[in-house]
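pasting TolC family protein for the record, 461 residues
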Amino acid sequence: MLSFNRYAGMLPLLLFAAIANAQQSPPVTLKQLLIQVDQKAPTLLTDSAAIAIRRAQAAETHNNWLPNLRLNYQADIGTSNNTTGPYFGFGIIPSSSGGIHNTNVTTTMSDNFGIAALDWEIYNFGRYAAENRVANSDVVVEQKQYAESKYDLEAYTIANYLQLLRLQDFLGIQNRNIQRTQEIYRSIKSLAVSGVRAGVDTSIADAELSKARLNYIELTNQLKQIQLQLSSVSGFPYQSIIPDSTVENTLIGQPVAYTFPSDTANHPLVNFYKSVYQNNLQRESLVKNLYNPKIFFEAAGWGRASSVDAAGQYNSLSSGYGFQRGNYLVGIGISYNLFDLRRRQLKLRTQKASTNYAFKKLQEQEQLLSVSASQADVELQTSLDRLREIPKQLKAASDGYRQKLSLYRNGLTDIIELDAALNILYRAETDYMQAKYNYTSAVFQKAITENQVNSVLNYIK
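structre below
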């Protein structure tokens, strides 16, 4: 008795707090939430940064044609005691000049050397253009991946928003169930005091009331968890994410409005796989051009001085600095490795396998979207049929409960039958809530699959 009075006193306070909070936080429409997610979602911010990386890489690739112009200078002191003869340079031999003395001379000499050398791969039969196309294609792939991430996050947000609507409806049902149980409790209490009913009925009603309150607490926790998930992607405080309860009725009231044409050809998921396939085709083209001959333009100008003169005399070390002789050289060359024919054949075979895989994935996604669209149509029609039938169940269950409550108050039935009628009404309300959720979920599933989310959003404002 004391426990019930304490709970009964707390409930109006809780309801008042909930109403006050709802007044302070106006409902967040689905369109508002999606706009906020587009702007604040951490994953989208990360993906947009990845696009910037690809663009920077493309700009780097576009400048691969630039020539190399190297400026070198060195001043040396040491010996020049060599003998004439050819060799392959290994990169660590300091000099390749021929011998000018018949004997071993270890006199110190000085020299300096300066050179400006230009080498430029001026033409490679299409490799530069192929590299640029691949770089541009990489940017497109990243952009399409961003669009796909946005699409996935949009679907995630819609699904959680609809769950919020479902739980909000469920909390309303649970609240009504608590009120009915309290009404039964008060009836039992008055009948027990007058001796018409046994005290055990009071205990049964008290247990049912406690169970209803525990369900309410659990549902409130579930609702807050989903609010937190939406808060993490939207940046809204989770307490302020109150769903617009008019969405379901608006969608249910316009069942013929969702016969929009499918736009799977421009679906973000299909576009992503198309871009991957096109990227692989561009890489095939690059492989074909990667091993082409290369035409080089070479130019160099250099100056040199030495403390050893033309007669082989070793002069003062200071005479080895400051350029004494100057030369230049300009030429055009071509380079081609015959074994690159085999390398190109092997690499092209590998790339063609990758291209074929990308094409199969594209076909797979197109097929999956087609099947999903058909499934959404079936689910939408089934959900609509349920909505047409369930009100009959709900009316019958409501009438049955009121009759059983009247009979119980007049002592013509027992608490077990009354509790059964209450459970039937509770199940009917729950079924109606679930039917509304299934219908709205099917509408958006169809819209997401057929790339028509904006068309649905325009109906619900």
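The chain is about 65% helix and 10% strand.
The CA atoms of residues 380 and 443 lie 6 Å apart.
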